[in-house]
Amino acid sequence: MITASQFLTPARELGFNFYTGTPCSYLKPFINYVIDTDGFEFIDSVNEGDAVAIAAGATVGGKRAVVMFQNSGLGNAVNPLTSLTYTFNIPVMVITTLRGEPGGPADEPQHELMGQITIAMIETMRLKWAYFPQTDSEVAPALKLADEYMKQTNQPFVFVMRKDDIADYKLQKKPAPSKKDISITHTDHFNLDYKARTTRTPVLEALQKEMGLDAAVIATTGKTGREFYEVGDQKNQFYMVGSMGCALAFGIGLALVRPKLKVVVIDGDGALLMRTGSMATAGAYKPKNLVHILIDNEAHDSTGGQGTVTGSVSFGAIAAGFGYESIYSTDELTVFTELLKKLKSNNETTFVHLKTQKGSPEKLGRPKVTPAEVSVRFTEFVQA
Ligand SMILES: Cc1ncc(C[n+]2csc(CCOP(=O)(O)OP(=O)(O)O)c2C)c(N)n1
After folding, report:
1. Ligand 1 touching residue 220 (CB < 6 A)
2. Number of C-beta neighbours around residue 350 at 10 A
3. pLDDT of residue 183
4. Is the CB of residue 68 less than 8 Å from the CB of residue 95?
5. Alpha helix (H) ranges present in the chain?
6. What are the pLDDT digits (tens) for 343-358?
7. Residue 174's pLDDT band (boundaries 50, 70, 90)?
8. Quick check: 180 pLDDT over 90?
């Protein structure tokens, strides 16, 4: 057993000062210490996949980030670990606990199977891993191994934490008081018939024209990224080819660590429904430089146009409920284009719900620039 500080202090010396994750009782002293101690930033993520994406955004923004979670949530993290950090070469450190360790201490039935397959899952994902250090003398070599591997490969490194690896540490800081009597007054402004709405490409053209190189722009999975590339490839554009639903969490991580950089996330309705919870993180931490634009064509356009359920959803009201500061809704391209001027210089956590119809240009291509190349030049852009 070591104290949280015995690991976290030398880790901070190596630059690991950005932490995000979802708690586990095994992690309790570790997370508590991070929350309490100056020099660490902790972002509470609503699920383990979001945590990976937030950490990835922070890493691209120049931080060394650590994701912490219970192995029950490893499944929630598989998609961003296989199609975001792997694909884009983003080296985050992961600490997963090992509830249900085979041959380990008695545990709850719900951890039995996951405990047996955790290591196999990590290895199946081809992630390099080691057990979390249990003695002070093991800390330096463990950190050296992780640090060197991450620097050499630009890939994540996983520590597997067992029961009682960390000595108890009680949280000193009191949580912020909760808001009372929240009342939501949001009205959507959708006037047009579905077929009278714009398609996506004119929206992306307007966005690129207005923002130029003055913002980092993250385009959600599927045809949005492909169309954005066709509109004109630029170094400030991140085409999130996989990790569906993670664009917002990635943008939050980036916006939080680069507060002077305007970060625009272009989301899809299917993607946002998949990980709506990340809107709570945006509303709670309120990065003032974050503009979250939902292009809502009420369909999974990229995979054949099957309808989503957004016809009955007021995302504006949801954004207000989650605590976004500035909320707009429209189905008119001219209104959106006008709004872009304001968004360029506003300083509030902003959500825009833009209704469109589905449909893409015929013979839509795919980015010829690889995710690894996108990652390198986008990183250079945001850190410039
Ligand atoms: C986790 C995951 N599930 C499913 C897919 C397949 N997929 C790629 S794009 C897409 C549709 C996305 O819908 P939406 O966000 O509404 O964007 P649109 O296609 O309408 O532009 C789906 C289902 C995927 N890439 N990842």
Report:
1. yes
2. 23
3. 83
4. yes
5. 4-13, 28-36, 48-60, 74-80, 112-124, 136-153, 200-211, 223-231, 247-257, 269-274, 278-285, 315-322, 333-345, 371-383
6. 999 999 999 999 999 9
7. confident
8. no
pLDDT at 181: 79
Domain boundaries along the sequence of the chain = 4-161, 194-383
194-383 CATH, one of 3.40.50.970, 3.40.50.300, 3.30.1330.60, 3.40.50.1820:
3.40.50.970
Q: Residue 89 Cα, ligand 1 centroid: separation in angstroms?
A: 22
The residue whose CA has the least distance to atom 1 of ligand 1 is 244
Q: Is pLDDT of 130 > 90?
A: yes
> Is the CB of residue 271 below 6 angstroms from any atom belonging to ligand 1?
yes
Q: Which atom of ligand 1 is nearest to the CA of 242?
A: 25
Return the SS3 of 171: coil
Domain 4-161 grouped into CATH 3.40.50.2000? no
Distance CA 143, CA 146 (A): 5
Q: What is the pLDDT of residue 176?
A: 80
Mutate to test the pocket of ligand 1, among 226, 244, 306 (most ligand atoms within 8 A of CB): 244
Is this model's pTM higher than 0.85 or not?
Answer: yes
Fold: same for 4-161 and 194-383:
yes
Report the separation in Å between the CA atom of 245 and the middle of ligand 1, taken as the mean of its atom positions. 8
Instruction: Please tell me the predicted confidence (pLDDT) of residue 179.
Output: 79
Nearest CA to ligand 1 atom 22: 303
